[in-house]
């Protein structure tokens, strides 16, 4: 279907199924938000809400940008109506204003003239029909999805992980990019969903807001990870939260074929190549932020082609923790930070009350995991070749269950077996 037909199908579905009286159509956090945090939340809530109705990408971004402009303007004109308490914003009240604006804009688009004007604006912004250098515009085939995502809960009572796919990253956040960019992130939550949810809605926003983006991606990543961590730790203190999450984030520069990655913890990313065989994959993220790796270092080296450079990085992690006053000790068959956490870098993790069996361990270390569990990410800047076909990002649940080779071959088989699916 062309963009106009996709949009009409979505708007018909929206008109049929929307419930304006629903008090909570999307989940909101328990904590309040500061003014410089609400734009990221507005975008996240709008995107989540519109995804429920199958909003096509061609109008998703312009609808969200209109909602952001309307709500931010209204927050300045009438802050109390948006939940402003004098210090921050109540998320439930702000969310209701956001959803109301989304409903209003989508209802207006049922008018064919307004829908045609919006699509014409999108075409103008993309530069379709004009002459551009080959590097300036990346052709996008309507309806041709360039990513696939899925989250699955295993044995935990609640789903604590989150993932984000933003194929129009530069348009959605009005970045200074000179080419189309996309953002993808995977957040593996522990001890609750709050850290993963906050990172999934704010990390990419602070990447786009960094003064170093896009010319210095390494520093932009570091700025964003550390700011996200600092803001969430403040909420942990105010609301007695103790959750944390690992993260792997990717900014894909489409025209220049660059894939820039940053990560904390044990989530990973790898490239899968078009040609099969022994070298069908290339690991871009190495799990050097895992305290347990040295427990079976020989096995870890034998299991796949790990470099001695990676071993040195793991040992450096242990030395960093000891230098900052923490310890890495064996507990339950694994090396753990302060005898508890199996990862050495993450977003969140303040403190947690443990049962008596862990009391002796608490005495050995500090109940507060900071600064031992750092939010300073490792960064990998890469340029794709013609042989690189796709990128896989996933939490440790996938990599612990299957080898990189098996994952690569399975995905290649599925693509060839079910083309276009």
TrEMBL record:
SMART domains: PP2Cc. Residues 145-421 form the PPM-type phosphatase domain. Belongs to the PP2C family. GO terms for molecular function: metal ion binding; protein serine/threonine phosphatase activity. CDD domains: PP2Cc. The keyword Metal-binding applies. Keywords: Hydrolase, Metal-binding, Protein phosphatase. PROSITE patterns: PPM_1, PPM_2. This is PPM-type phosphatase domain-containing protein. It holds the Pfam family PP2C. The keyword Hydrolase applies.
